[in-house]
Fold each of these.
Amino acid sequence: MAEQPKPAPAPVAEAPAQAPPAEASAATAAAEAGDEGASTSKKAAKKAEAKAKKEAEKARRAAERAATAATSDAAAQAEDLAKDNYGQETDVTKYSPDAGHINLKTLGEESVGKTVTLRAWLQNSRMQGAKMVFAELREEGNWTIQAIAAANPEGAPVSRQMVKWIGAVNPESFVVVEGVIQKPLEPVKSCRVSNLELHITKCFVHAAAPTVLGLTFATANRPVTNFSDEEAKVEEGVEKLSIAPPGEATGVPAASMIAHLESIVMHKRAPVQQAIADIRAEVKQLFREYLRSLSFKDFEPPNLISAASEGGANVFRLPYFGQDAFLAQSPQFYKQIEIAGGRKRVFSIGPVFRAENSNTPRHMTEFTGLDLEMEIVKDYHEIMDTIEGLLLYIFRGIKERCSEEVELVRSVYPSEEFLVPEPGQSVLRLTFAEGQKLLREEGPEEFRNVSDDEDMSTPQEKALGALIRAKYKTDFFALDKFPEGARPFYAKEDPKNPKVTNAYDMFMRNQEILSGGQRINDPVELEARIRKKGVDPLSPGIKEYVDIFRQAGVPAHGGAGLGLDRVVAFYLNLPSVHLAAYYPRTPKRLTP
Amino acid sequence: MAEQPKPAPAPVAEAPAQAPPAEASAATAAAEAGDEGASTSKKAAKKAEAKAKKEAEKARRAAERAATAATSDAAAQAEDLAKDNYGQETDVTKYSPDAGHINLKTLGEESVGKTVTLRAWLQNSRMQGAKMVFAELREEGNWTIQAIAAANPEGAPVSRQMVKWIGAVNPESFVVVEGVIQKPLEPVKSCRVSNLELHITKCFVHAAAPTVLGLTFATANRPVTNFSDEEAKVEEGVEKLSIAPPGEATGVPAASMIAHLESIVMHKRAPVQQAIADIRAEVKQLFREYLRSLSFKDFEPPNLISAASEGGANVFRLPYFGQDAFLAQSPQFYKQIEIAGGRKRVFSIGPVFRAENSNTPRHMTEFTGLDLEMEIVKDYHEIMDTIEGLLLYIFRGIKERCSEEVELVRSVYPSEEFLVPEPGQSVLRLTFAEGQKLLREEGPEEFRNVSDDEDMSTPQEKALGALIRAKYKTDFFALDKFPEGARPFYAKEDPKNPKVTNAYDMFMRNQEILSGGQRINDPVELEARIRKKGVDPLSPGIKEYVDIFRQAGVPAHGGAGLGLDRVVAFYLNLPSVHLAAYYPRTPKRLTP
């Protein structure tokens, strides 16, 4: 493979003294496209976009070819005593093995004076005169170090050609650098590793970035400006490329969610996204840890099912070997089969699918569900105790294990501390009726007449959450005993008051994060309630559900389901769940 | 809800002295249906089945009604001093709180003489005369204890009526029992807790099982006789109910996979299935533990994607808001985006979908994928080292943490010990060419001419695995350097010998369990190989894939994917992966 031509950074002679910031060029391109497209139809705009894309790609390929050719030119230049110490080298097996690989996260002053190797992204570089170049090398998340290459008058190990070459490496190229760790004269404010710097002796580009990035590193780390697929759709491709006005403090422009997703690689490299991803992974881990410690068993419900699980609305349907299959909207049915099958306590983490045509920053068509189900020994409040313990464990776990990540996210998306009860204090638990009473008595004018028998609207939830935060200093609380009419057919009615159910919701920052309750475990009672809800107990999906409880005696049980994306987004108070997802799926977007 | 009629065990007076074994009745029903259906068409058989089902349900409902009525009769009987100590009681809040709940798993001799409460399934019961009943109570998996109720001449706390009532509780009902722990006169061989027994003072049926189970507990724990949906399909509903001839040693009949799945609740209650599920959950946990300890990050790839990921064959397609969506066949693309996005090392555990019309015990249309991807520092063998370490960790972990479960599974599905290298010894790693040479020189006649340039067939794999087990005493080995033609377009060719790739498979018990390798990380090289494979690099799905490597410099990387179901099935040498899955999905089966 060594004989294949490879893209390489443009040589100094041919590169502009300082490439214009990528945003500027993108903005210009967008503005031009905008001028052209403003008075034309959507179709024309689409066409223009396609054309622009095609041309951009043509340009990119030309740049690649030029770069490759230029490398050969450079090689043909006058003698360069450092010529073996830098260049394009894609074959990983060829990197010098003689210096210890370091990680910036664990690098300490004991390394001063030592020769080391660092694998990193070249975040940016800046020439100082013709003999010196400063580069910021980024390793993981936001770990950066300043690297310096200074040409030696003798030309070894660093020559002027080498310095110029490093100065022209495209930002976000992946480099392997050898050098000596030294203490800087004064702390390097721009880098996370501020007390050390790297004096380059070798520098190889292992994978070159393009001359113009779809999204610069700095812009990728700015708050996303617009989450609507809908708006962008109106302006088609034009809006996709548009960059919002420069941020107040930083001077760095910000971009829309669509622009981020079209440059998914740079979106993910942004420290804020790395931090969100790390927090998300840790929430999963905390969820599992806590439940496993309570003897819950992990299982996987199927995603392909034979009948629409919750009545057929908002469910994806697909052809399946001559029949129809559906994508599961929740693992409810299967969690209960596990309990019926003697598994006592189960949890699952997996995708759930909603074919809901909602184009908002709060909705996705696929997300990750966190579900649990357990036997009840004496009373369904055991489940609420377990869930509250679980969520407190998660909230406290985020604070303990991810404090740096949370702080980093807050530096981009500011939010107030997420308030939870002090250790030893219990979670605030009101009945639905108590919540409605609070709303009637202390809430806004418009909620003076809310009823105890009807489900709450989202504005009611928000108003109640605000009242509770002010009154009880908590961002996390539970509402118990939801009215019968607000709960699905499988919800157990309160034996003492059948107008309400043994069912609850829990809230984070004024928004519902979790729904759950005791399920009916007796087939006769279940059929009766299904009929009461106006549903035929023999209809497809329903009959199979009821039959589970006829197969053998099933103990009392209940559980809950919540969305991982929402837990992360609500905890961090992100402007959209799309930021908490790895690959958000919306009615208009299935890529990347 | 207390006023609602509830099913209850039939009173002694009306119940047959000993209900006929459920299998017998099911077999009779099946035989009858079979007689009727034998000469008719499939359609008629289906109709007959539907009719039989309808009637069975009618009968069941009648029994429920009768039982309810009879309970009132019983209540109206002569004075029963124990009448508050037993009965049907669905309301969990009413169970006596005054005795400590026990778990059989942790029950010790220090409990002798103490009054305790046990929540369990009544596995079976047997009257001894009119005054005494023996019951086997099962708590979790296969933890059982013998319980005895002996009528006191004074009638309190246990009366003759109570004894008879317990003797008539349907097997697999869920009961809450209060009693005193005592030492039996001699060890109880039939129960796992053999050194203690429970002398019943109260017994409530919390959830009644039906009189006739679809699958008895004993049959559910016998080896499944037949995994073919295909065969069963031919005989429609008839075969579904059929029960195979009695097992040699036990005298308990065994049933087909379809019969098991139609009685999913009993299938899951079988100790062998509980053990398999426990092992499966632990494999997931071991996978995560090991990779997290090496700084791998958990992430979730999307399942809904916009283009068929591997060329369009065997992929499920569904309508998606006016466009088409596909179900992901592998997280390959997304693992690589994570690496490009700076995540260094990632893993995922989630569903993968294959629309392959294969009706065999080895295939499923949905299964759980275990995937990993990592940067390469110097050489792709780093990945092989990591995977081998991971799998050894899993194999040793199963042995250490699940020895009882493995033994239990072997008691139903016998298998030889899974051979792995001793600690400190490395995993056997041959090149593909070395494997072929071994086959040619020492394998069966038919493989004397196998080529180094073509992929292996399944029979070749099996033959090679057998040779290796005999020669190297291992059930786990790796084959490296697969021929170029046997690997997909994204596989990296060996720079020193482009006829082979930096790609490998690993094997468990002679079967391929894992495929992986180094991926091409350079867009120019990638396009060239795509063209070499005869694919247009601008075709849908492919273009988006290549573009990822153009967005910014992506370091060398590679990984692997394996199936959780297969790891479990191969380790235990189960006759089908369907037994390792929670809810196996086949072209003909989407239920339960």
Amino acid sequence: MKASRFLVSTLKEAPADAEVASHRLMTRAGMIKKLGAGIYTYMPMGLRVIRKVEAIVREEMNRAGAVEMTMPVVQPAELWQETGRFDKMGPELLRIKDRHDRDFVIQPTSEEVVTDIARQEIRSYKQLPKNFYQIQTKFRDERRPRFGLMRGREFIMKDAYSFDRSPEAAKASYQVMAQAYRRIFDRFGLRYRAVAADSGAIGGDLSEEFQVIAATGEDAIVYCPDSDYAANMEKAEALAPTGPRGAATQQMTKTPTPGKSTCEDVAALLGVPLSTTVKSLVLATDLLDDQGAIKATQVWLLLLRGDHDMNEVKVGKLPGLAGFRFATVGEIEAHFGCKPGYLGPIHMKQPVKLVADREVALMADWICGANEPDFHITGVNWGRDLPEPDLVADLRNVVAGDPSPDGKGVLAIERGIEVGHVFYLGTKYSQAMNATFLEEDGKPRPLEMGCYGIGITRLPAAAIEQNHDERGIIWPDALAPFTVVLCPIGMDRSAEVKAAADALYDQLLADGVDVLLDDRNERPGAMFADWELIGVPHRLVISDRGLKEGQFEYQHRRDTAATKVPAAEAAAFLKGRLAV
Amino acid sequence: MKASRFLVSTLKEAPADAEVASHRLMTRAGMIKKLGAGIYTYMPMGLRVIRKVEAIVREEMNRAGAVEMTMPVVQPAELWQETGRFDKMGPELLRIKDRHDRDFVIQPTSEEVVTDIARQEIRSYKQLPKNFYQIQTKFRDERRPRFGLMRGREFIMKDAYSFDRSPEAAKASYQVMAQAYRRIFDRFGLRYRAVAADSGAIGGDLSEEFQVIAATGEDAIVYCPDSDYAANMEKAEALAPTGPRGAATQQMTKTPTPGKSTCEDVAALLGVPLSTTVKSLVLATDLLDDQGAIKATQVWLLLLRGDHDMNEVKVGKLPGLAGFRFATVGEIEAHFGCKPGYLGPIHMKQPVKLVADREVALMADWICGANEPDFHITGVNWGRDLPEPDLVADLRNVVAGDPSPDGKGVLAIERGIEVGHVFYLGTKYSQAMNATFLEEDGKPRPLEMGCYGIGITRLPAAAIEQNHDERGIIWPDALAPFTVVLCPIGMDRSAEVKAAADALYDQLLADGVDVLLDDRNERPGAMFADWELIGVPHRLVISDRGLKEGQFEYQHRRDTAATKVPAAEAAAFLKGRLAV
């Protein structure tokens, strides 16, 4: 490509609403242009990156035996009503009425449509397994779209759906996809982790997120540097602590802590480690009657160590706690006789269900609220001062330094950006939509499904969050809009420069190198700044001065200085530098 | 590709709503699957065809210097309000409200968005010309979607937009696109015509439709077999007839024609050629006041030969007739004292504007209605029996046999399917949206635009209308889902057949041939029927019997019998048969 035939369009200033590097840099590099909140045009420079992402994904999906199709963007509501998602999904699902006042949605994913296709196409176990995928425009009407392509409303997603005879076969299909995803992310040239994720009601471990590591990532991801354990924060567990519980050494004492309503403040006031304090969280669960009115309410007191945070996913899975909510101030006062800030499990007004985190259950001589404003209790001990908890469980987020659950070291935490997700679905959709096949015994069985997504347009943004500096983007070779840029200096004045640039350009093109020749006749400073902002990884400068010495200047986007390369060897040198 | 890894899914029966061959065959061949009215999933077999269309279009657009981008499917209403199209476009424009109750549309085309991009990106004449294109999902909420992909609601279109300094430069850009379109349609291997089309208010001849010739086409296209004249029916003109007018030889006579209200019936009753009758069409134009109320109405009488039809586009361009409507029965009775069926230009109750077609103006001794039920007048002559018309003009559609306007023969008419359109837009959008650039003299000027569309998903349907038989589709090589199919017979029973099929498959793949190996172990009859329905152009059959003779059987989809090919030469033979 020659720059004069392309659209090289860089900006000095980032848009005011750009909060993260990828949004700023993609806009400044002329890769995206905002049309509305969370809605972007993929400009020529950005579209080239997206096409490279798509090509790698498509190649690996095909290699893994998946078959591409394209489902409609605008989908009739009927199928979404079959699974109940038309009503259950919130305003993120963009709903439309057509000219005949019939309901439609714009696809946020396509489970319903692909299950409808499967129930028509798949009749016999002989046709299984099957995996259908598409790379297609999606829309989610996010409440607060932001961060450019990172959390847009319109975006491109690769979504794949596997269909199998049995849970075992479905899990094998899942593993094929998980492997394909590793190949895909390896080929992108990004640092990433595949982390176990919560699989909700379906259970088991068959859900993994593919997270691109970046300090600005929205997700905390947990891993063990000494093993291959990795999980997202929702899912991650520490090795269960082992007893025995320490013996009581202190008397239980009511202690004034005026104005100190947090564990941090209390520990500081008393000069003790935060880990000797216990925080009290009050939850409630409602029992509903047939009309959906509240028949009865159960109040729960959860005890966590002062330096730990509750993990809502883990708590929601405990017996009796599905669908929990935080208790109201009224409920708290009724049960504890005290406002939040000084609550504790001792001297309650009404009984509650008491749930202790595994760590808290093993503590001795701990500190909690006294159920009286401006007072805490120190030296609290299980059994002696209060009965054993109704339930002991893992209630908390892990923290760095926790022992890894595989016993092979301690956990570390870093930030990541989710760009892929593989998920074993079971028969959730096939049962709702009666998508069955005939087993060998002639009986119908629901199809076992999995779903597999990659955020095609989010991926370049994640790549940038991981790979940029103050001058701009630094693309891995596989994702760069152009792999190589040739920067001739004074091409309009020097016939020699022009001839050398044209010859090298033609040679690289003939060798299949994705090269751009910058024939805009910009000044060197402006030209270099453009390509550093755009992030092309390999640059060759062709100048009159260099030609006199028979040399070009090569610089990788990460290099701090240029390398002189004999002109005659430039093409060979360059190809040696390109990632395969 | 191996069939076992793909989705080969054919149907015996076509859907009940399939009225045309392409709809029937694409559905039966498993290429499309209906999701809702005018909304289809592109199934794996169909998507392969669409991707081939896209690839050829993309290659030729790039070659012609156009730059690809991708504009959003969901577009904020604001831009559409700037040009007035948000209100002016009918219910075909699908309108949406997002969660914040803001108005959006789903793109039917993207003039507004691309003009918005141009006004931001193009600042100077030095950046011109530019041509931006996309290949992207579109939606038009057709009142009556039908014919499968031919007139769907959701479809894929390639839309390109050129930006230039001057009308002359814009016309040059238009010609570059028209040339690229010829290359594209040549490469598709379809019979097509580029026909002049009406360019509406913009005038000039800079609008052409690319029509795939097919007997089932919705459009009548006009061409001269002896020259390169071609136009669509709206636009086509015959050579203007030359005088002098014939002399009057008959007396004007009121003739009873009881119950004969059409020219055909009258001509039959009187035993005269239809071409001696004249039909009367009554139109009206309204003059509106500032509030949009009707201030005055002008009634027009148009006279056409009985064997000719009115061309509404031509009539709408006549002075005073822009925005005409057909007169009401009340208006007709007030001016003619008679109901429709026996109207004519003689003995009217109130004066009207009289417009005669060029042919009628030269007629003598003609026949028209008597403005009295059940009576016509014969032997009518201009000047003697009624005054000369207020206006003489070309009011009619051409008919086969009319002299070509270039004087080089007579016109012929065939049917076509519009699959592409190139159009010079002028400054219609750039002026409405204030999209200007700075000219060399430092002054802002509106960008001169052109727009260029290709119906990517309509094209395969048009190709099928042109190329099919009673057994199924017959794809040109360039569009086939697979160029070659290998049909081994009894691959599961014969190790020799399997080995020969696998070897040939590997060799063809290595040579870059788009080949499918049918490893489904279907019976020969079912297998051949599938591939004849799907329309793969080249088939090689590998059987035990053939292998004993060292031969495979080759058959092109259009051949009536197979050709024996020595096994060793099969790959070379096949490649010789493939279109380049």
